[in-house]
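Known limitations

Structure tokens in this collection are predictions and should be treated as such. Users comparing against experimental data should check residue numbering before alignment. To illustrate the layout, the record for Sigma-70 family RNA polymerase sigma factor is reproduced below. The input appears on top and the generated tokens appear beneath it.
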Amino acid sequence: MSKNPDSQRFTVLLQRWHRGDGAALNDLSKQIQNELHRLALKLMHNESAGHTLQPTALVNEAYLNLLNCDVSYHNRVHFFNLAGRMMRRILVDHARARGSAKRGDGIKCITLEEQHLGAIENIDILALNDAMDALAEFDQPKAEMLELHFFAGLTTAEIAELYQVSAKTIERNTRLAKAWLRQTLQPA
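Generated tokens:
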């Protein structure tokens, strides 16, 4: 499996930053914020204009968490895997806070693109979170693969690189996991 040169450069910068090189963080910052903003826009593109959590706020909170996290990032994929998980937690925490404040009114819904889950739209983030947790109890690797795809925005090739398996294996596993989620999230 050949590695992307940009991914390799990102990994080197991550390692330098972890060793205390402030210049490496400066080099990474714009790249990280741009990628996080792209992910946030993707996650929140169908939200109403008055939604209390805006993509920039999601990016800022995730970015600060990543900077303050005492983790040695292995590579770009590992970094954005963690970023995706943080964004998921932030969205879920925000939805829970709004739901408890308004007794279910305004629970955050997200729309996963057709390629993600098929015809299911406007999925309550809390329902998706519960379904992902249930899938993780049943099959942790498949849940992680979907999380990497949905929340970290990684491609099939990047997920395959992380797991050191073929892209076909990732496609097959995510197809099964998406089918399981689709059935779990279908309205009764």
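For this record: The chain has one domain: 5-185. The first strand starts at residue 109 and ends at 110. Please report discrepancies through the issue tracker.
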